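So, who can interpret the following?
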Amino acid sequence: MAFIIAALFSLAVQLPAQLGASELVRNGDFSKWSEGSAAGWKLASSGKASIHYDVNEKPEGAKGSLRIDIEGSGAGEGQVVASKFKVQPNSILFLEGWMKAQKGFIQIKLYKGGKEYQRISVNSGQRGEWTKLEKELDVGDADALAVLLRYNQGSGYVGKSLWFADISVIPAAERIRSAPTIAKLEGVATFSSIGIYADIIGDMSQFTKGYSVFRKKGEQEWRASLPMQWQDKTKQLRSSLLNLEEDTEYEIKTWMEDPNLTEKMEPAFMTVKTWSSEVPIARTVYLPAGEITEPLLITESGSAEGWVRYTGDPSGTTVLNVGMNGANAVKFEAVHHVILDNLTIRGGVKDAVTLRSSTDVRIMRCDISEWGRPGELLPSTNPKWGRGPFYLDENGERINLEGGVRIGRYSSRIVVEDCYIHNPRGRATSWKNGHPLGPTSIILFNSDGNLVIRNNSLIGGEEHRFNDTIEGAYNNYITGGPHRDTDFDGNTMFFSNDDGVELDGGQMNVRFFNNWIQSSYCGVSTAPTILGPSYIYNNLIVLEGEERGQTNFAFKVGGNKVEEPGINYFFHNTIFSNSMALRGGNWGKGPTPLFTRNNLFASGVLLWPQKSKADFDYDMARPNSIDPPLPEWQQNGVTGLESFRDRAAGDYRLSDGSLAIDRALALPMISEEYQGSAPDIGAFQVGASPLFPVREDSVSALPMQLQIEKTLATSNEKADTLYITAPSSTGKRWRILSDEAWLQFSPSNGPCDGKVHEVTVSLKPDFKREGLRQGSITVRTDFGYNRTSFVKAKVRLADPGIQMFVAADLEQRGMTVVESDPNAPVVPYLAAPATRAASSEAYIKFDFEIEEAGVYYLHGLMSVPGPGSPGHDSCFVQVDDGEPGYWDFPVTAPGRWEWMINSIQRKEYPRKMQLSAGKHTIYIRGRESLTRFAKFAVSRSSLPPQD
């Protein structure tokens, strides 16, 4: 079974074609000289240097070496360059050579079509003695290669020499080597996962594949796992076991195979036990009843045999309300085996709860809010900060990185579970001001990893948006973000102006699964994956816009800014994005390894401009949404439209007759068990509950998304019903909580009796702000268990004064009239010309008259085609004799026709048109090619027309 799975999951590798002799570097031993230079090599340095053949200074076994004498300093690095030679794309080559230098290295330049494609540096920590350098190279899409001998030519190196010897590049399959062996096998557990680490000694190769199988201790049959990832710079094979049972011992067998080796490679074995939710309590510290205004400093530790538990008074009236009386409401400093349980926590000038140098700490069922500083939104006072404005503190410094929970340095085995973290004092800026800055629910700040963040409601709001819902620091550190061996499971994550979660950093066996992200700019960021692997599976990501209505990527994938980045695995996710579903190259322009299976990209572009190191298959996507549409991608994928069971109610189960049913690939540990002939694509299998994320024996609240409305100056109102079920194991009573002042609900509480209870949710009678409001409503029990639903509220004007215009009926120049399109809401419609130059000359014009002066909005029923939809997603709008404003569309997913409100990029969303009574003219001026226009509407309402 393991052999079959590994074959399915291996990224495509081709053996190199024979290019004449196996040795590809000409005169790699530097023995041939012509006209004072080594044949096939050229000195190319801005400083002064000379090269010589040296038979006295050489490594053992070499005839001689190339000596470089640095005679004058120069800018940058000096170099001796070998003649460029052709390589077979996707081949694997092996570079070997010797170097003796204080500061030097060998560099490989890869070329594609004559242009530089990628640089790879090969160096060593040893200096001043002969050092052997080796590197296997996957050339990717490159078709040519050059070898460069690089050295520091700064003034401090003038008068010094360095040497290189026996430089060779051969097909890696011809490399003579001994079999690698597993020197150490280690497993790192959480409740439901185990990270596997195999340290390798010997001559490893990209042709060598690692495998692991596992079983519960005492069972006979081995179970297959996903393939192991090799990383040369750490000399380690890594992978994860997923969806395990907690408090269970597992036996694990790991081994390697290589088609180019005849030696037998012995397997290694280990036994690892997963964590238990139940731990022994040695002592419980009850905080006094009532309000506590002084910070709680936890300094007492427990042990594995007996933890120390802090909780509120049994009366349930304890509130730790620190306000601004301390930097933190709760601080863990150098403690271990401690539980903070079911406590209401308010305040903290910076973070509500912070941990440093602590291990084995569990923060459970806490209600955490009102931390951080609101600041004052002021213009930028530092040119290095960018545009601004920013929320500044009393010292004029930008406010950022303030969390409900901060897991800091030297901390590991930390659990945050079943918490309700919400309503910070401040709010994040948006991309309108530059990169967002502001509060976050959980900060992972250079910890030692091995964390679990599970079953939490992490809820911002329109007035208190997070920067990232879960934020990491710092992205370019291996220890940044979750670092390693970390699970994110069962979390609900609403309202961020940037990412739902930053996994950026080392990402060694980091797992993000069974989570729901909504109302963010991006979903999951894996930029960069410095080491890998990371596993992102069974998640629901709904990106309909941050505070400006803009979205970016559901999956923000890195690039090659770090050498040899690790791989990201994306399995069985359901994605609905107004813009991009996935994009690479967000940390370096080159590719990073990516592997996708069984994802439902119901809306959004799959953009992978690097064109390599990605393996897309068995996914479902909309027509023309894969960019570029390479033939090797999605050979077993599905192209089609998915409407879902009831998206308005947050029910993202597959619709009856969906093309995604029975079309997925069975994956070990993830989708081995299924109904029908095969698993279903996406996060929801046929027969699944509409309730998501899945939390065992917890509170249920349906629907996942509520829709309420009212019409001002009338009695028209639409409430919605929330159906709540709370088992007796979750507490005695539940109550409704919301940070939205415009919401009301009845009843506000009820018993935990396992029965279904109905709660009516509606807008408060005195709320009269026209437009769309978005918020949330949370059910929380007295034992601290929670469940949150999203809320959309539409407040309409009784008479919005809508004037509707069919685009094809309007005056226009340069547009194409499209007469037939089965997927269009209106035909004929207008499309911009096929080139950007022609589009800039095209326009649509319409005249209208209004009786009452005031603020008006422009709406357009529009669509952008794909592939290449980012090149068709904007136009200009000119009102009367005003300056044209740049209208960037908030919905750029190809093929979706949506009503979109006019905005001005980075200036105003939505754009308010202050119009006088009388006649007016609007021009829709072309900007990008092929943009489609069906209808326009001018209205006093910011809500789209109901047509």
Remarks:
- The two ends are 54 Å apart (CA to CA).
- Confidence is low (pLDDT under 50) at residues 1-21.
- The CA atoms of residues 575 and 601 lie 5 Å apart.
